[in-house]
Amino acid sequence: MDAMSPTTSMSPTTSTTAADPVEFYGTRVNSRLLLGTAQYPSPAILAEAIRASAAEIVTVSLRRESGVAKAGQPLAGQSFWQLIRDLGVKVLPNTAGCKTVKEAVTTAEMARELFDTPWIKLEVIGEDDTLQPDVFGLVEAARILCRDGFQVFPYTTDDLIVADKLIAAGCEVLMPWGAPIGSGRGLNNPYGLRSMRAHFPRIPLVVDAGVGVPSHAAAAMELGYDAVLLNTAVAKAGDPVKMARAFALAIEAGREGFRADPMEARDMAAPSTPVMGQAHFG
Amino acid sequence: MSDPIILDHDGTATARPANAMRVTIVGAGVAGLTCAHAFAQRGAQVTVLERKSGSGQGCSWFAGGMLAPWCERESAEPLVAELGFESLDYWRREVPDVPAEGSLVLAQARDLPDLKRFSRRTEGYEWIDGARLGALEPDLAGRFEQGLFFPTEAHLEPRKALAALTGRLVNEYGVTFRYQSDVTSAVYDAADASAAVDDEADVVLDCRGLAARDVLPDLRGVKGEMLVLYSTEITLKRPVRMLHPRIPVYIVPRGDGHFMIGATSIENDERGRVTGRSLLELLSAVYALHPAFGEAEVVEIGADVRPAFPDNLPRIRRHGRTIRVNGFYRHGFLLAPALARRAAELAFDGTHFPEVMDEDRRQW
Fold first, then answer.
1. Does residue A85 belong to the interface with chain B, where contact is any CB pair within 8 Å?
2. ipTM rounded to 2 decimals
3. Are A98 and A63 in contact (CB under 8 A)?
4. Which of A14, A73, A205, B255 maximizes the CB count within 10 A of its CB?
5. What angle do CA B134, B139, B140 make, to 5 degrees?
6. Residues within 8 A of B (CB atoms), A 104-123 only
């Protein structure tokens, strides 16, 4: 898979989703939308939104839901997790809310046991107001988890050096932020995201966090990103199901636009119809 | 199990005709008590069985008691608001001390987008400025520049309201309460012939909340944590909701300097355990509302688990002579009277209520 190669668009196809899978740690999925499962009005609406989005991967937070294990009894959050498992999607557990390496590693270990998956979306939060990743802790936690056999999806910034170190630690996916979690501000630094894409043409890149409206997601895909991960924008919409579908469409549109090799922007008008034979002034 | 405590009328209550419908209600929370009222009003002879030692000691004990259908409209389905208006009228009419002072929704300056979003999702409010807020709640003067005021909403003290309702049921309607009783035999319907109390009933109402998960497999628990603070430094007339992108919190004045602070909403069924993080979040939010809460005395900390169906909407399900009323989620007081009236009309008139009765024909 080569995300930077618009030439793949040469293959004649009418259905993008069927012909254009993306691969994370050897797992192929057709949907380029990864959806979070928090903050929906109800589990029923969450389930409907996931179906409408056609997402095949959902993130699940377990830190708060898990409760305290009692001998011989399942953890208290069991019924919600069962509901998610029943949707038949792939679960990407996360370490949301963890602030230290140790917390994140412990949470990841718990997630592996609960969901029986080596996948972990690694969040090490550095600061409460912006929920900005603590990139130093992130790299350290990624190193520990990769060594332990985890397949790590790190939530990071668009810093290229951090990205390098995450790859050196063993990460085969990078998830830079668009904007702070839950802010809905879109792509704060398109230049940074563009450089990241150019520097890591073969690593699957996912814009994670900050996406507010479908056009933000389309813009990320037009930059050549492989997928978009979002939660609040769908969960907190007035109609989460409709918004989930809107994002699916936008991501497909953005991806198709990228693969279609867009024209270059220019400063002067370039008429799309010939002007020969018409009157010219100056 | 301890011996049953029986609360019975003294004989002055209206005598029932011999052919009155005999109804056994299992559960003396807000669902069971409002059902008892609805059935007794229709002339039924009602017995309430409860495994605890008094009324309203389950989930209802920890309820906020906000009667705020407009505010709930922001995040709940329209049905919750519709049922809520009916229930709001019920409580105002049937129990004492239900102040209709409205409710306030406020946010810190940095969370103004959440306030705008809230206003877009509902109706029945007016935007107010700092001066108007100061006129409504003098102790909040100068603390917020904008807010939403919902003038038609009300609130009650759940524990007092259910005690008052229990008293009326016993004294006016001759309802018998059997606390600390074994309720299991009553809810498994006619299959168990040895269940004597069950055999006498024409209708059994299962109002057990989450305990009914044994027969309602799609019921799940949603944990809620709350606390009660005591402060003489601040007075509020009406409930205040503090918006926050992650941690919305409400404060309900309970009178005499007491304030109920609630409530977390966590997808698990863990009873009774209040975490440090939840306390921290609840307290931070009220401290942001007014620093006096930072000096307030912590009177009570509590947690319980709300019963909810996957769409967080309530249900009435009938199986033979058993009617199950459940799934009130965060809206016990806001929904119970409206559901109770429907359950009674179902039993007496055979009326079908598609909005709360799914086509579930499973055999339990």
1. no
2. 0.75
3. yes
4. A205
5. 55
6. none
